[in-house]
Specification:
transmembrane, AceTr, transmembrane helix, membrane, 0% strand, globular
Length: 198
């Protein structure tokens, strides 16, 4: 009897990165104040592409044995679904607050800032572009947290611009896996982090 060999699955990284990138891109455009500042347009993306699809990518990363990818995609997928729920009137989350809503959002965003810091530190020995993704995402969450606690629209606008950079880096990381010498005439460098040993 021949030995059973499980069928390998495709790399789910680009799918998760694209789901994260597009949803982040749209919300960040809103946060910059370009063309309006009502964030509800992102709900569809946040529930499905940035949310459900990214969680699926995270589960597939578990299958591939990628701890960081599995943790990041599953967690940020959960972030997007929870964020969409906050914006959806049917959940009545914002209605439960009066003056304290900004503070509550500050607590919510602070938690994600801390989580992103952990992910950033966990990527120090990985590829440079992935570290840059977590670095700019950390700055984005930090500015959003400050903006919520201080009720400072300028911080939210700055977070929008950093979020746009984050989205572009996420797309670049996805493209570096999709656009290779095997599939295209060009390839995208990602760079390896070089940390000196102490």
């Amino acid at each position: 009897m021949s030995e059973y060999r499980p069928r390998p699955i495709a790399n789910p990284g680009p799918l998760g990165l694209c789901g994260f990138a597009l949803t982040t891109f749209v919300l960040s455009l809103v946060n910059t104040g370009i063309g309006g500042n009502v964030p509800n347009v992102v709900c569809g993306l946040a529930f499905f592409y940035g949310g459900a699809v990214q969680i699926c990518a995270g589960m597939w990363e578990f299958k591939c044995g990628n701890v960081i990818g599995a943790t990041a995609f599953s967690s940020y997928g959960g972030f997007w679904i929870s964020f969409a729920a906050i914006l959806t009137p049917a959940f009545q989350i914002e209605d439960a607050y009066k003056k304290e809503f900004n503070v509550a959002m500050g607590y919510y965003l602070l938690g994600w800032t801390i989580f992103t810091l952990i992910m950033m530190l966990g990527s120090l020995k990985g590829v440079r572009t992935m570290f840059l993704l977590f670095f700019f995402l950390f700055i984005t969450f930090l500015l959003l947290t400050i903006g919520s606690f201080a009720n400072a629209p300028d911080c939210n606008k700055a977070a929008g611009w950093f979020g746009l950079i984050t989205a572009l880096i996420a797309w670049y990381n996805a493209a570096s896996v999709i656009i290779t010498k095997e599939t295209s005439y060009v390839s995208l460098p990602v760079g390896q982090m070089k940390i000196p040993h102490v």
